[in-house]
Amino acid sequence: MSDRHIVKSYDRDLEAIQALIMKMGGLVEAAILEAAQSLENRDEELAEKVRKGDKSIDALEERVNEEAARLLALRQPSAGDLRTVLTVMKIGANLERIGDYAKNMAKRTGVLVQMTPIEGSAGAIRRMAMAVEAMLKDALDAYIQRDPELAQDVRLRDHEVDQMYNALFREFLTFMMEDPRNITACMHLHFIAKNIERMGDHVTSISEQVIYLVTGEMPEDDRPKADRTAVDVPGF
Amino acid sequence: MYDNPLMKRDAVTKEVKISARGCQVFYGDTHAIKDVDVDIEDKTVTAFIGPSGCGKSTFLRCLNRMNDTIDICRVEGTITLDGEDIYDPKVDPVQLRAKVGMVFQKPNPFPKSIYDNVAYGPKIHGMARTRAELDEIVERALRRGALWDEVKDRLDAPGTGLSGGQQQRLCIARAVATEPEVLLMDEPCSALDPIATAQVEELIDELREQYSVVIVTHSMQQAARVSQKTAFFHLGNLVEFGETGQIFTNPHDPRTESYITGRIG
């Protein structure tokens, strides 16, 4: 809907709140990549930056919620405008959560740099993080362009992230069984992988919000779930 | 444990009270209503919304033949009440209007006492044989109009001496005194303050238990608050008619969306 509101300040309010979301999205994307990078390069300084940066993401989410509450109270939005405000609040919450996971990755990186690296793991985690970051970027593009097809595409790609997580889960299990001295590092790495897998779920939820925003309906089909680690117990 | 569901607002499909098919209205050469088909359900509040001049009031006035009073007005198509054509020459418009009551934008009490305002309709329709019966009808109507407690000690005072909100509720009491089956309301709150508006809205919600209510309103929020079904009119066409929740969260027609979100349509 490209038509402008008769009351121009209404458009400005709606644009402002969406600009906040995009700003948040940019910060979160950077946090994901930098968290993975700090792990791979054993860069304690970059990890510290990610940990500190989470505060501004949280602050932005709070502003999104305040602006959304104000808009609801003062403008009583309906139809597409209402869905915009509702989705902005949910996407804000998803982004904030992804930011928390990135922060947690950076925290664990701080511990992992003190230990012997587990071979190949950091690279695999970075690839997984890059996949999620690319999904997030597309989900946010789908949001700005109101593109439900791109959103649906992102939604289906979460499958790949789940599979990467499954593979890493097995790998860490093998490392731990081979040598119990790997357990501490592998536990941290596993939590990191799990964090990224959860990020993917939040990106999926953002995509679903985009579909709701544009079509007025949540996607009904179940998307494929590939995280089977809670069902299948590999290696035993 | 029992779930605590939200207050039920869905329009469960009910019996159709008024049905319009291929309704057209002309004022001289002006084509005011174009081929409108609509089913108005019993015990449901139906809201008509749309920009000024879209025909919503004109259509509302067709439902109790108020347009008969306008010489140049011509109505085509069929409108039925409980399956009977209300434009049938055998139908007496006065009897029809007793069944299909109306409340107008500006409170318009008769220059009579509060009591006589309400008693007028029942008297001319011979609904009461004794004064006691009439008293009962007046009290019941005023109670239903949520006005009884405020006026019971001064029923002989002139109706015009009440406040605007009270006058409007008096008009509603007057409209329900003849035990109508349908109540048409043309912008009933536009001259009222927010408190009186809330009282009238609460009243509309109560009336829904017994009547089919059709309300024309310029306040989209009011339509959203009081109605179960909403019809959007634009340039004489019925653009969209559906469940109120759906119209206000996910309208199907872009013209509806433009109008309710305050965009230039």
From TrEMBL, chain A:
Per UniProt, residues of the PhoU domain are: 21-109, 125-210
Top-rank taxon, per record: Bacteria
Keywords, alphabetical: Cytoplasm, Phosphate transport, Transport
UniProt KW Ribonucleoprotein keyword: no
Q: Which InterPro entries does the record cross-reference, listed alphabetically?
A: PhoU, PhoU-like_sf, PhoU_dom
A single Gene Ontology CC term: cytoplasm
* Chief location of this protein within or outside the cell: cytoplasm
Compartments reported by the entry: Cytoplasm
Q: Which Pfam families match?
A: PhoU (PF01895)
GO BP, sorted A to Z: intracellular phosphate ion homeostasis; negative regulation of phosphate metabolic process; phosphate ion transport
Family to which this protein belongs: Belongs to the PhoU family.
Note the subunit structure.
Homodimer.
Q: What does this protein do?
A: Plays a role in the regulation of phosphate uptake.
**Protein name from the UniProt record:** Phosphate-specific transport system accessory protein PhoU
From TrEMBL, chain B:
| SMART domains according to UniProt | AAA
Output the GO biological process annotations, alphabetical, semicolon-separated: phosphate ion transmembrane transport
Q: Which UniProt keywords apply?
A: ATP-binding, Nucleotide-binding, Phosphate transport, Transport
* A Pfam family this chain is assigned to: ABC_tran
Which CDD domains does the entry link to?
ABC_PstB_phosphate_transporter
PROSITE patterns from the UniProt entry? ABC_TRANSPORTER_1, ABC_TRANSPORTER_2
The organism that produces this protein has a lineage beginning with:
Bacteria, Pseudomonadati, Pseudomonadota, Alphaproteobacteria, Rhodobacterales
Q: Which domain of life is it from?
A: Bacteria
Fetch the SUPFAM superfamilies from UniProt: P-loop containing nucleoside triphosphate hydrolases
InterPro entries given in the database record? AAA+_ATPase, ABC_transporter-like_ATP-bd, ABC_transporter-like_CS, P-loop_NTPase, PstB-like
Q: What is this protein called?
A: Phosphate ABC transporter ATP-binding protein (PhoT family)
ABC transporter domain span: 7-260
Query: Could you tell me which Gene3D superfamilies the record lists for this protein?
Result: P-loop containing nucleotide triphosphate hydrolases
Q: Which GO terms describe its cellular component?
A: membrane
Do the record's keywords include Transport? yes
For molecular function, the Gene Ontology terms on record are: ATP binding; ATP hydrolysis activity; phosphate transmembrane transporter activity
